[in-house]
Amino acid sequence: MQKPSVYHYSKAKRIMRYLAGTVGFGLWYGKTNNVKLLGFTDSDWAGTSEDMKSLSANAFFLGTGVISWMSKKQAVVALSTAEAEYVAAGTGACQAIWMRKMLKELGHEQLEATPIICDNESTIFLTKNQGFHSRTKHISIKYHFIRSLVVEEKEIEIMPCVTFPKFFLFI
């Protein structure tokens, strides 16, 4: 701010052009009586080439519109796709618990478990199965809290999602 240059001016112009071109964009929230919280979670395994860390992403809907979304690099290097998805599901579960508490304070308590849609069957199995397995013992204990949310407290329900094969994207 103290010594703006031509570079800064060109970047500011680019931002203004973007804003002028997207004035008509927005999110649509339709009227509905079904005010249920629904989450989606996903990750890519070793998506960043510099440090081979995965990215977690989640989105939450309330009724017909998205009310929260997030994309973040994971703090750990996942050794499998199941671990990357499990970490992403754990992050989504934390967000869901926080949103459930906020909705309760706003007078829209969620009485049923919040469904979180996940496209990895191994992750769904891990969240519902309390046993430790030799193939999953590398997953940090701190990510297993999601099991208590699914099995004991029944605040979260992890559900499968069918993903389309990549070749459908090119048709």
UniProtKB/TrEMBL annotation:
Keyword set, alphabetical order: Nucleotidyltransferase, RNA-directed DNA polymerase, Transferase
Source organism's superkingdom?
Eukaryota
Q: Which GO terms describe its molecular function?
A: RNA-directed DNA polymerase activity
Give the E.C. number(s).
2.7.7.49
> What is this protein's record name?
RNA-directed DNA polymerase
Q: Which taxonomic lineage does the organism of this UniProt entry have? A: Eukaryota, Viridiplantae, Streptophyta, Embryophyta, Tracheophyta
